[in-house]
Known about the structure:
The structure is a homodimer of 158-residue chains.
Chain A (H helix, E strand, L loop, with lengths): L6 H15 L4 E7 L9 E8 L2 E9 L1 H12 L8 H21 L6 E9 L4 E3 L7 E7 L2 E11 L7
Antiparallel strand pairs in A: 1-6, 2-3, 2-4, 3-7, 6-7
Amino acid sequence: MRAEYINPFIASLKNTFRTMLGCEARRSDISLKPDGRATYSVSGVVGLSGKAVGTVVLSLSEQVALKAASTMLLTEATRINDDVLDAVGELTNMVAGGAKAQLEDLDLMASLPNVITGLNHEIHFPSNVTPICISFDTKWGKLTLEVGMAPVPQHAAV
Amino acid sequence: MRAEYINPFIASLKNTFRTMLGCEARRSDISLKPDGRATYSVSGVVGLSGKAVGTVVLSLSEQVALKAASTMLLTEATRINDDVLDAVGELTNMVAGGAKAQLEDLDLMASLPNVITGLNHEIHFPSNVTPICISFDTKWGKLTLEVGMAPVPQHAAV
């Protein structure tokens, strides 16, 4: 995955959190993900396809998911329910959407957002794809954004 | 989701298992998925986008995942490792690929295959999408295929 493709995702996450949630997200770390373990217990997943294929994973602690959803829903969410899961999916969709708008040359389309729960869930990428994992700090706690992309044979390398 | 869109996925799963694994998969049940719990502990996930957006989830018990991977890898797999996860992802990709070839009018493209593990993981769809869950019996055990699709605003209803 070419490094310049990661910046639109970082910018989109910061912008989505600022504009949708009134919440500054500060990048704290960036790494090649060493294994498949989701960093937190609620993960929004959006698939991308076009001149490249990829996956965007937004992983939140339960606390960050509840705070973000409460802000989006304009009502206090105190447990993970369908509304909170929809809000996390929508947030992931917005992060992916903002990034793909910046990556015009890849002609990306987003799939449905799915949300994975379960304390010890792991989201594995194909072993020939090395996802980049970016950690952020917010006033509500930490979160991670993980992006893995691969070229499709008939198009230019990603 | 229009009912006629599910048959290509059922046919593709049967065909993929027969041709790639030498394994007959018999459909045992079909239902609208009542909640987000993955039926089994290893789930391959592929996103679809085009004139519709969707997700395909192939959920296998550890035993079925190991038997399927052993057949694909031509070597006995005894535990879930990266090779087994890649095989499950590739199997999910083939099921999705076979179905999208039959759904030409939707111009679908597949994202990267991801594989989710964790005994109690749940894969949630957006609450306005009702996935269809199809159960299959094989000589190795049971598995489920789950497909959820939704129209995209600028195209015809799915």
